[in-house]
Amino acid sequence: MSQAGIDKASQPENLAIILCDHLLCELKAAQSAMLLLRKYAVDEQSSDTLLQWLQLFENFAYKKITNIDTLKGQIDTVAKIRALIIFPNDLINARQYECF
Predict the structure, then answer these.
(1) Given a cut of 80, is residue 94 above it in pLDDT?
(2) pLDDT by residue (tens digit) across 4-14?
(3) Residue 27 CB neighbour total at 10 angstroms
(4) Do the beta carbons of residue 86 and residue 43 sit within 8 Å?
(5) Is it the case that residue 96 has pLDDT exceeding 50?
(6) Residue 12 DSSP code
(7) pTM score, whole prediction
(8) Are 55 and 67 in contact (CB under 8 A)?
(9) Cα–Cα distance between 84 and 50 in angstroms, integer?
């Protein structure tokens, strides 16, 4: 990106656009991670819990049916996700070369 592009993006009036773009990028990453977690690491009940958590962000980003206040307090979810994982590290290590 050119310096002019950086300067333009850095202007306060463009902050909402930059933050929205970042939210969409993070949401896509979270959706990919959730797919893998749901497929390989959690049981059905935990899978439903993960989908419900992600739904708040999808509603905000795609459907515009929630607002930023709805998302407050939802960011500390990493510990909740770790608690849902049902298999030990040795199983993860055993699967790491399965695709080769």
Answers:
(1) no
(2) 888 888 888 88
(3) 16
(4) yes
(5) no
(6) G
(7) 0.62
(8) no
(9) 9
